[in-house]
Amino acid sequence: MTDKYRPKSLNELDFNHTVNQFLLALAKSPDADMPHLILEGCRGSGKRLRTELFLRAKYGEFRTRNTELLLDIPGKTEKKPIHTLTSPYHYQLNPNIHSIYDRSLIQVFISEILQYRVLTGVPYRIIVIEDADLLSTEAQESLRRTLETCITTCRFIFLVNREDKIIPPLYSRCIKIRLSSPTVDEIRSITDKINVAENYNISSTVINSIANNCDRDLTKAIHYLGRFYLLARDTGTTEFVLKDYDNVHFYCVDIIENLISGTRLEETVEKKLRKQLYELVNYCVDCRLLIKELLNIALSKISKTEYEAIFQLCQIASERDESIRSSSKAIYHVESFCVHIFSIIKRVLEKRKKTTVSPKDIETPVTPVPKPKTAIKKVVAAPITVVPKPAAIVISEPVATPVSPPLISKVTITKKPTVIQPDDVDIPVTKQKIIPKAQKSAAEQPVTVKKLIRIKSTKLPQGQETPVTEH
Is the pTM of the predicted complex or chain greater than 0.85? Predict the structure, then answer.
């Protein structure tokens, strides 16, 4: 279905109209005025289609064929094959498939092309390099001098997915054309036109779900529309579920669910994970696409408040995407990313278990039981009798006055001075000199209060105390 509704000219494209007009004007300009181009945009933005339509607008209709070239690489005894899409006017290749040999392959390929003259009368050939942002830094640096020396014999068109992966010297030698992906409304309108043209009678809710789940890729949306019509005709389904129509998404969802439900990492990787990953690689699925799909599904399983886990997953995905460029076995890096997903998700689940409260720990509010209403009886207060308090008895201590010496007998009453314990107050203890009693002055003697009493000489019964009268 995608080939059936494929546009035949730049004017038939339904989005990026400004870019289409620019390419039409460039195609009509003289051959000498064409510069090196960089078409930048996400996957599904139409870079390859616009390149093909630009060449057809410039040179007219032509046929293309797939060819395989065997190139000699310096330092290697065996020849390396490289697949190209060729026509009388251009060559289209993807050298990053060969990873570490991309620099040697692209230089040998350019030297092989320049050995022969063009029989169609075109002054130069056009070389289209797909996924130029995935080229190694050495390969990109080797193209700096080539763009300057070979400008009379060839022109380059670079198809780029990510702008930050291209070195600045290449940007300075080319004209950059930015392509935006189609919006959801544009995809919805295009799929609706196909639905009416094919007489599928698919509801608008299904078309809206297809437009929202196609990742703004128009080719993928048209593919989903055709598969849904076939399944709805056979099974009568009325809902669009993404994993039923996208095999890569189905495998990735199964991988993440196995990682979450697995208890031991070794058993999960050996029995389930590795088998599924190798099946995807055998179906020629790009490993970078797998990392992106696994990351999106893993993030959907984590709460948005887990900022640390989200940051770690994004950082590891970026590192693995970068390391794939300089490796020969990309599947190892995808498997390493899955191991990190397993450890991070398990850590988040353990943290969630500790923070969740069990139903037993939740205190249920106790509703108070209303008391039965009773009749209120009037109580007459009894008269209160006030009892006067007894008068306070004041005992005054007699004042000590000096008296004359006693006549009959004397009783000496001494008042002990108050002694402060050393535990209560920190007073430095000093040694005192012992002075004999005889040397003590009269001022140092304790003050005594003397009272005179007179005792009557009367005989009292045995056991009775003698009364004392005070004068």
Answer: no
